[in-house]
Structure formats: structure tokens, C-alpha cells
Amino acid sequence: MYGAGEISGLKATVDIKLGGMLIRNVPFGLVMEATRGIYEEPVDGYIGLGRLPVFSLSTSPLSVFVREQGLMSGQFGFEFQDDSATFIMGDNLEQVLPTGGMAYVNVVDGPYWEMRIDRISISNTEISTEDHRAVFDTGTHTIVLPEDIHMAINRKLGISRLVDGVYVFECARLPSMRPIAFHIQGNKFHITRTQYTKQTTVNGDAMCATRFQNGSASTPVGILLGMSFLHSFQLIFDDQACRVGLAPRQGSNHSSGGKSMVEYFPSIADTAGCLDWAQNIGLLL
């Protein structure tokens, strides 16, 4: 189950080339059936972020499979552009990614990239989130939040109209919508309105909608930071060091939406090693 919906299908293998290197018998899944949310975004597939083979078929995620073959290290990353993305693996990825400085977040030792968000802020309003566990998840298009936190954000943004489970507003309000900051281990990760909103139609009329959604009873953690958050940054995932690096990417300020950025403050995020305060969770990434 992704944050975007549910899938079912078949397990298969394929030979792929990664950086000119031929890698044989890489496991992947063929989606035969899926809920509507899987098909609503323009993607060809998902490169999962799982750190261990936790599924019933014991299928290793791509990064784990390649490392187990002795071909590359456990580091991998994503270089995002406005309309495309590049998956990279290897050492010293900071020298490869075009970044303006990488801020690292320590994560829990386990199968997922789990941490806690201290709080969310919009202008001078702060919303506490420290009671909830959070996960970085490329399989989720939106940002999934507990309902009370989602509604607090909507109140600050002045959004209340709900249509088919999505909160919508007049697109003319976009220029006044402020960046949203996620405070994680002493760092502030900002996303702009171009990342947390999208255009849609309501009864044939053009409207705008937010990319936040409520979690459900089946959501294994309180917060899923999906692509609406991740796309604002260049990313490095370091399994052995138990940390994720985020750096603001160039081009994430499209259509005058403002510039995404990271405010970096030396903190516990500078300390190597895995956190151990949370239990394993069951989320397909």
C-alpha cells in the first residue's frame, strides 16, 4: 500500500543498465490492478525507498539489491528537475548533485526512513507535530497528515471548501499563499505554494487544490512526506550512516512561487549513527 493507493500484481525480474553497468535479475513488480490514486499522477513507476526486504516475497529494494551484489555502496539519491528526475547511486554523491549545501537528518534504524518532525510553521504560526512519527516516501504524491494538523494548516491558509475529499480554493489566491516550513532536528525545510498546491476542475471550472490529505486508520505513521515535499530538494539516502540529506534544488521556484530553501543549524542531525526510539512500521515504499 502506497500513500497514493493500493496495488496488486506480479513479481518479475529484469536486466537493467545503471551508469553503463549491466545488472541482471533485478526484482520489480508488475502492477496489474491499482486504486485510482495510482493512475492520477504522470509516473511510469516507483523506485522504492525500502532499506530491508520486508515484504512477504522477500524482494529486496533496488538499492539493497545492488549493494548485496557488491556493485555499489548503500548511498543513493535523486536529482529532481521541474519535470523529470534522475536516480543515482555511488559514493560521494554530494560532489555529483548540484546543491547549495546539504542538511542531514538522522533516521531510525529499520526498514524505513523514519524520523520525527518537531513542528510545522507558516509565517508566525507554529503547529506542533512532535507526537507523530514521520516517513520520507516517494510512493506518496501528497503530504499525509493527522486530521487536526491538516485542519490547522487549512485554517492558516484560509481554505475550507471540500470537494470529493480534496480542499479547493480560487486560484487567484495563489500569490498570497505563504511558504510552509517543516522543522526537523534543528533544520527548517521550506516548500512553496507551487509544491503544496495543484490545479484541478470543479464542475467544469478551473480551481486550485492543496496536496495535503488526512491519514486513515490504516496509515502506519502519522505523517508521510511524499513527493509534494521531496520534489523541492536534491536528496541523498545513506543507509549505513542512517541519515537523509536534503538540499534546495534550483528551479523549484517555478511560476513565481518563491524559492524553496533549507535553513541549516548544527544540531543532533550532525551526529552519525541511527536513532533507536521508534519501533518498525509496516509501510510499502
TrEMBL record:
The keyword Cytoplasm does not apply. Gene3D superfamilies: Acid Proteases. It comes from the Eukaryota. Keywords: Disulfide bond. InterPro entries: Aspartic_peptidase_A1 (IPR001461), Pepsin-like_dom (IPR034164), PEPTIDASE_A1 (IPR033121), Peptidase_aspartic_dom_sf (IPR021109). One of its GO terms (molecular function) is aspartic-type endopeptidase activity. Residues 1-247 form the Peptidase A1 domain. Disulfide bonds join C171-C208. One of its GO terms (biological process) is proteolysis. Belongs to the peptidase A1 family. This is Peptidase A1 domain-containing protein.
